[in-house]
Amino acid sequence: MTEPAISVDNLSFTWAKGEAILQACSLQVPRGEFWMLLGTNGSGKSTLLRLLAGLLQPQSGEIQVKQPIGFVFQNPDHQLVMPTVGADVAFGLVAERLPPQAVRQRVEEALLAVNLLTLQRRPIYALSGGQKQRVAIAGAIARHCEVLLLDEPTALLDPDSQLDLVAQVQKLVKSRGLTALWVTHRLGELDYCDGAFLLEKGQVVDQGDPARLKQRMMQVEDLSGAAPV
């Protein structure tokens, strides 16, 4: 395995009310690869992503993630804060105190990477859901993030936009040397990744070849679908 950009070792997390979400969870995502995180509702997928992003703190275990990190929420309206596409991408660069010319260059490069350069002046409210998600990704690219964490970014999109977005992220990972971890429950999205993890009850119970994990999940769905109510 190549050098990991994301490394989790024996991670545990319990909510204040005592509900254990992650228990002795361990995984590694190789640098420059696109991996996905599978699991049923309540398995700990979104919690794990928030721990990786530093939005939550674990009770025990170790997390190492190559910086800087870009986080893409399931609902882009929760993270797009400026009125236009270009202004929103530029907003993430404020802390870097770059000269205006450098900001313009970074914004244009990032929007070009996600095929939204022509929409730089477009109001955010006038975008489709898929375009909003690409703006969120452009914000991470503009900040030169090494790692992208994406929490079910296609959940609110129509089927065509879902596949467009996952193909776009795959292209960005390969062309720009990024590392991405993408939470999903859509088995068709596994066709685009380098590998996948299966999370059950807060632990990684299987990992590796996405085609094999896709087949495993399809068999589980077939069995549950055939089971009596």
Span of the ends, CA to CA: 43 Å
Report low-confidence residues grouped into runs of 5 or more.
none
Rounded to an integer in angstroms, the radius of gyration calculated over CA atoms is 18 Å
Strand order of the largest sheet: 5-6-7-3-8-9
DSSP, total strands? 9
The backbone outline, from C-alpha atoms, is globular
Structural class: alpha/beta
Say what oligomer this is.
single chain
What is the element string, with H for helices and E for strands?
EEEHEEHHHEHEEEH
Considering DSSP H and I runs of 4 or more, what fraction of the residues is helical? Answer: 25-40%
Q: What kind of sheet is the major sheet? A: 6 strands, mixed
Number of helices: 6
Estimate the mean pLDDT confidence: 93
**Content of β-strand:** 25-35%
Topology:
Elements: E1 4-14, E2 20-30, E3 34-38, H1 45-52, E4 60-65, E5 69-72, H2 85-91, H3 100-113, H4 129-142, E6 147-151, H5 159-176, E7 179-183, E8 195-200, E9 203-208, H6 210-226
Parallel strand pairs: 3-7, 3-8, 5-6, 6-7
Antiparallel strand pairs: 1-2, 1-4, 8-9
Helix pairs in contact: 2-4, 3-4, 4-5
Question: How would you characterize the overall build of this protein?
Answer:
With 229 residues, the protein is α/β, with parallel strands linked by helices. It has six helices and nine strands, in the order βββαββαααβαβββα. The strands form two sheets. Strands 5-6-7-3-8-9 form a six-stranded mixed β-sheet, sandwiched between helices. Strands 2-1-4 form a three-stranded antiparallel β-sheet, covered by helices on one side. Helix 2 packs parallel to helix 4, helix 3 crosses helix 4 and helix 4 runs parallel beside helix 5. The longest helix is centred in the last third of the chain and has 18 residues. The chain is globular, with a radius of gyration of 18 Å. The mean pLDDT is 93.
